[in-house]
Each structure stands twice: as C-alpha cells, then as structure tokens.
Design brief:
Largest sheet: 6 strands, mixed
Shape: globular
Distance between the termini: 39 Å
Strand content: 15-25%
CATH architecture of the largest domain: 3-Layer(aba) Sandwich
CATH topology of the largest domain: Rossmann fold
Strand order of the largest sheet: 5-6-7-3-8-9
Structural class: alpha/beta
CATH superfamily of the largest domain: P-loop containing nucleotide triphosphate hydrolases
CATH class of the largest domain: Alpha Beta
C-alpha cells in the first residue's frame, strides 16, 4: 500500500496554492490517472511523491508520504539533463536491474517495445534518439528494475501507435498500483479505473481536487450530470426566491402604506394589528435570509480555454498546390541509415494531413525538411511548431516578452488578454517560460502561430502536452483552421477528428491510410 496524507503545494514565487490537503491511498490493482488543465500541479505532485528535493527550488510543500516498502518506478516527463549525453549503452549499464537480466529477458524486453535486441548496446547518445525511443528506453530500464508501483508522467508522449497499444496492455496487466498522468484520451478511457482531477477556480485563486473511484468515461458522464442537476436545482431555488422576495416586498409595501395612512382613531386598534403584521413579515424575511445561506450553489468548474486560430486571410484556394514534396532518401540524423527511400507528399488547398509511423522511422526529420521548404516560400505564410519547444522558445523570456515584437503598450495589453483566454494568471504571464508546464509552453507557441497570420501550419505532436479537458478545444481549433495543416501525431482522437488524410512513413515511402 502507498499513501500520501494532507499534501499542500504552494509556489514560492507568487505564493499561489496549487494543491491543498490532498490525500490518496493506492493499492494493488489501482490504475489512477491524474488529470487537470496545464499548470495545475500534476507533474509537480508526481515529482514530490518521487523525491521532494525535485521541487524544493520553486515549491513549498507540506504533507506525509508512506511508501509501505513499495519500490517505485518513475518515468519523468522529460529525460533528465544528466542522462542526455550518455550513450544508450551507458544508460542501461548503470541499472543494476538491467545488468541482472539474462540475454533472453533483455531480448523479450526489446521485443515488447518493438526494438532490436542490440538497442541496449548502442553508442548513440540518448539525446539523439527520437522522442518515442527515449520514452521506450526509460520504460525498459524501469521495468528491468522490478518496481512494485509505477509513477508515470506522460508515458504516452511521443510513442508510436503500436507502442501506445502495448502501453495500454502494460497498464491493464500491471498487478500492482499505477499512478500516471496522460493527455491521451484513448489511453485514459481504456485503462484508468480511478480518476484524480485537479482544478484551479476563480482565476486560479482557489484549488480543488476530486478523487473518483470509477473509470474515466464514467467520471466525465457523472460529473456532467451532477453539474446539470446542481445547476437546475440552483436556478429553481433562485426562481422561487425571486417570487418569494417579490411577495414579501409587496406585503411590506402594503402594510407600510396602510400604517402611513392610518387615521388617529385607528392607531390603538388597527394600528397595533398592522405593526404586529409588519413585525411578522420582517421575522419571515429574516428566516428566509437564513435559509438562503443554505441554497444550492451554482456549480463551479474550471473553464475551458478559449482560442481561435486563423481568419479569412488564412484561407487557401482549393486548387492551390501547398506542397509537392518528392525528397531525396530520408537519412538518420547521423547519416548512417536510410530511413525512407522515397517519401512523396502532395497537398492541395486547406488539407489537414497526419503523418504516423514507428518511433525512429524519421517522421520528425521529414517534417523538419518539409518545414524548411515551406518556410522559404514567399507565396505562403508557413509556421512551424517543433516537438522540442526549446528550438523556438526563449526559455528565459516571459510569455509576454516572447510574443511582443513591437514594444507597443497596446500590443502588450492585447497579448495579456490572449494569454488570459488561455488561462494564464497575471503572475504566470511574468514567469520565465522555463518555469511553465509543457502545456503552457505549447500554448505560447500556438498563440505565436495565431498572431503570425499563418495559412500553413507544420506541427510536430501538436496535442502532446494538452490535458484531456483542453484536447477537444485544440482539435476543434485545428479542424476549423481555414488553412493547411501538416502534422506528425500519435494522438488517435486527433488523427480521426482533424485529419483528412493519414500517411504512414515506411522504409519505402509514405503510404496513405484511412483515419481510425
């Protein structure tokens, strides 16, 4: 059994409480997913559970952790900096658990993750692996160490669809407890049997958490019904209150009018009766006011982000060729391997294209080559969102400074308004970008794309850092974008809801598939 009690996490910089008095018990068989909007403290809580020192630079934390002898296996959201320059071989040889595995066990581990057995002994630096290969390497090392509880921060990020399905089987078949964060709605729907929902209400001044011991789809449905019922009850009570208050007001006015117009001869008899009646009306009013304190409150929930991408100027004529890519053979980053012999991609008008394929097959490399070609075109306004946000973001700048290219006061006010619609607080707008969550960084880049007036978007894993709650908004925004979208994605809902065409990158080239 694993337990945490009364955990409170507070930002040191702005003293904002992000999680308050949170307690949780995990037992074997629990598959608990943590959900919530970007920046609500999910990854911070996960780090605190693993090691409070991981967050002590920016978080004040109180609470207790009782591991009960559990051996945690932790997958961080990003590969730690100290591991990036190690070779793959060095990374695995540092693990006692891996070193104790037999060659047969190592081979099975590699096959489970669709890798060759010699993967473990590559001299390739970890930082040069694809995003999905890095996740696979970390997961294999974790599993080789025989943990009893899995703590996974975005295990679905960057891995291909085949590995996503394997991850689903792993979580479903894990005999002990799993606590994980994921933005992949399909993965959550298929695996979670407990939901932990963190929210920030009233402009992030109030935090709230909910622990529901039901599957995700049940939680979402029951939550919606509960909110609808509460809203109906609250509105009904307010309608009754309005009718009642109006009735009392008329009674007071009537009695008051009669008292004001009573004759001197009636003051002793009728006057006393009217005063008594007024006293009773006032008493009734006070009683109702006390009852009003217990009225059903209107339901509070975290508002979805509001975002629009593109306008009429972003439209592309249906007959215009956006891309006629017939590139040379696609090579690995070090030039030692041919990844795809002859990838060909043609796009006309405002098509939405999704590129899929196994990890390491060259999708990100191909997208970067397409971006290089389109960014140089004068007849298009193309913008590129890479998988690694640091390629474009100034990590030491604030979101406002990064987005402001004029220094104009009105422009900065407009940027703050946009960031507010994306649920940034005033303090977060002035935080360095490096202190923001992955989802908040993604929002900065998306806002940059929106402000650029682009009519072609080149996106590498555009939904990878957005919560299941923001995901539908992002998908709708990209589906409604009037220009063309060329994207790499493993998000099954994104591929089916947004993309007109899905192309699989293979060693031979690109093969068109139907969205699932």
């Amino acid at each position: 059994m694993f337990q945490i009690k009364n955990v409170t996490l507070r930002h040191k910089k702005d003293l904002r409480t992000i999680i308050e008095n949170f307690s949780l018990v995990l037992n074997d068989g629990d598959r608990a997913v943590m959900i919530g909007e970007e920046g609500n403290g999910k990854s911070t809580l996960m780090k605190w559970i693993v090691d409070p020192e991981l967050v002590e630079d920016y978080i004040e934390a109180t609470g207790e952790k009782m591991t009960g002898g559990e051996m945690p296996g932790y997958l961080p959201q990003e590969l730690p900096e100290e591991d990036k320059d190690k070779t793959v071989c060095e990374y695995f040889l540092e693990s006692e658990g891996f070193m104790s595995c037999t060659p047969k066990e190592q081979g099975k581990l590699a096959r489970d993750f669709s890798l060759e057995a010699d993967f473990f002994y590559r001299d390739q630096p970890m930082r040069t692996l694809s995003g999905g290969e890095r996740v696979k390497a970390q997961m294999m090392r974790i599993l080789a160490e025989n943990p009893t509880i899995l703590l996974l921060d975005e295990p679905s990020n960057d891995i291909d669809i085949e590995t996503l399905e394997m991850m689903e089987r792993l979580i479903l078949g894990w005999p002990h407890a799993v606590l994980y964060i994921s933005h992949d709605e399909t993965l959550i729907e298929r695996t979670a049997n407990r939901v932990i929902h963190f929210e920030q209400l009233r402009r992030k001044s109030v935090c709230r958490h909910t622990v529901a011991n039901v599957p995700y789809t049940t939680y979402v449905t029951e939550r919606l019904h509960a909110f609808e019922k509460q809203e109906q009850e609250a509105l009904s009570e307010r309608r009754e209150k309005k009718i009642r208050d109006e009735k009392i007001r008329r009674m007071e006015a009537s009695v008051g009018s009669r008292l004001d117009n009573i004759s001197r001869a009636e003051r002793d008899g009728i006057g006393r009766l009217l005063k008594k009646k007024m006293k009773n009306v006032k008493a009734m009013e006070r009683r109702f006011e006390r009852e009003d304190d217990n009225m059903t409150e209107m339901p509070e929930q975290e508002e979805a982000i509001f975002f629009k991408l593109g306008d009429k100027d972003s439209e592309i004529p249906a007959g215009k060729w956006v891309l006629e890519y017939a590139g040379e053979p696609l090579l690995s980053k070090d030039g030692s391997r041919v990844l795809s012999e002859h990838p060909v991609l043609k796009i006309r008008g405002s098509e939405k294209i999704g590129i899929i394929g196994k990890n390491g097959c060259g999708k990100t490399t191909l997208l970067a080559k397409i971006a290089e070609e389109l960014l140089g075109r004068s007849d298009l306004r193309a913008q590129y969102m890479p998988q690694n946000y640091e390629e474009l973001l100034d990590m030491d700048a604030t979101p406002v400074d990064f987005l402001d290219h004029t220094g104009d006061k009105e422009e900065r006010t407009r940027i703050r308004t946009y960031l507010g619609s994306l649920k940034y607080t005033a303090d977060e707008m002035d935080h360095p970008i490096r202190e923001l969550s992955g989802g908040q960084k993604a929002k900065v880049l998306l806002l940059s794309l929106s402000m650029s007036g682009a009519n072609v978007l080149i996106l590498d894993e555009p939904t990878r850092n957005f919560s299941p709650l923001s995901g539908p908004v992002i998908r709708r925004m990209l589906k409604d974008f009037p220009g063309a979208v060329i994207s790499v994605s493993h998000d099954r809902k994104y591929l089916s809801e947004v993309c007109d065409r899905v192309c699989r990158l293979t060693p031979e080239g690109l093969i068109t598939e139907e969205p699932n």
